[in-house]
Amino acid sequence: MKKINLHLGCGKRYLPRYIHIDIDEYPHIDYNHDIKTLPMFSDKSVDLIYTCGTFEYFDRYEAINILKEWSRVLKPRGILRISV
Fold first, then answer.
1. Nearest Cα to 51, choosing from 68, 36, 41?
2. Residue 1 binned pLDDT confidence (cut-offs 50, 70, 90)
3. Residue 49 has pLDDT above 90, yes or no
4. How far is CA 3 from each of CA 45, 61, 74, 75, 84, rounded to the nearest angstrom?
5. Do the Cβ atoms of 54 and 63 come closer than 8 Å?
6. Looking at residues 15-30, what average pLDDT do you find?
7. What's the CA gap between 10 and 77, in Å, rounded?
8. Which strands form 74-83's sheet, in the order they lie side by side?
9. How many whole angstroms separate alpha carbon 61 and alpha carbon 14?
10. Nearest to 49 by CA among 72, 26, 23, 25
11. Is 12 helix (H, G, I), strand (E, B) or coil?
């Protein structure tokens, strides 16, 4: 079974074996979408979420809802990696 790894707010950075999601438009971006919501993924379907340099832009109220959304798509025992 193929693992689903998401790179949220990837900008220009490409990571092999990741699905890239960003509001900017670059050739490697799979979904041109705001990372606050992930309607293109069903519940408990994602193995890993990685984001770098994005989370600090959300206020504390947004952050709670965003974490709930990201948690929704993560599989049980899925991994969330946030770099700030």
1. 36
2. confident
3. yes
4. 9, 31, 11, 11, 25
5. no
6. 97
7. 23
8. 31-32, 19-22, 5-8, 46-52, 74-83
9. 29
10. 72
11. coil
Mean pLDDT of the chain: 97
- Does the global pTM surpass 0.85? yes
Contact 33, 8 (CB under 8 A): no
Torsion of CA 63, 69, 74, 32, to 10 degrees: -100
pLDDT in tens, 62-81: 999 999 999 999 999 999 99
Phi, psi of 10 (to 5 degrees): -70, -25
CB-based contacts of 38, cutoff 8 Å, min separation 6: 6, 21, 46, 69, 70, 72, 73
Which residues does 67 contact at the CB level (< 8 Å), separation at least 6?
Answer: none
